[in-house]
Amino acid sequence: SYTAVRSDSGKQLYNGSGGAVTFTIPANASVGYPIGTTLTFVNPVGAGSVTIAISSDTLILSPSGATGTRTLAPIGLATAVKIDTTTWMISGTNLT
């Protein structure tokens, strides 16, 4: 498991463990990413599922509008974009 830090901005968070992992987007109160920040999540062939969690802010799945924790299946790629002070939007392949 890993909680993103400010220096991850614009970079990929890669599941290199081969197993299931959780990547957490921290609350704005603890890491004040600027609006427009992107975090890309990569889950390669043969890896376990990646859980993309968010501390206390809102994570919106595009295009459905569903909110909350997301799951990225193997061979999946997703990008989260900070669209407001405490709101992120995420979309990608093999993302539910």
Keywords:
eight-stranded mixed β-sheet, globular, about 0% helix, mainly beta, single chain, about 100 residues
Give a short summary of the structure:
Helix content is 0%, strand content 51%. By secondary structure, the protein is an all-beta fold.
Reconstruct the topology from this structure.
Layout: E1 2-3, E2 12-14, E3 21-25, E4 38-43, E5 50-54, E6 58-61, E7 70-84, E8 87-95
Parallel strand pairs: 1-3, 2-4, 3-5, 6-8
Antiparallel strand pairs: 4-7, 5-7, 7-8
Structure description:
The protein is mostly beta strands and 96 residues long. It is built from no helices and eight strands. The protein has strands at 2-3, 12-14, 21-25, 38-43, 50-54, 58-61, 70-84, 87-95. Strands 1, 2, 3, 4, 5, 6, 7 and 8 form an eight-stranded mixed β-sheet that branches. A hairpin with a 2-residue loop joins strand 7 (70-84) and strand 8 (87-95). It is globular, with a radius of gyration of 12 Å. The two termini are 19 Å apart.
The biggest beta sheet is recorded as:
8 strands, mixed
Low-pLDDT stretches are none
Global outline: globular
- Discrete helix count: 0
Regarding quaternary structure, what we see is: single chain
Helix content: under 10%
Number of strands: 8
Q: What is the typical, i.e. mean, pLDDT?
A: 96
- Radius of gyration (Å): 12 Å
**Order of helix and strand elements from N to C terminus:** EEEEEEEE
* End-to-end Cα distance: 19 Å
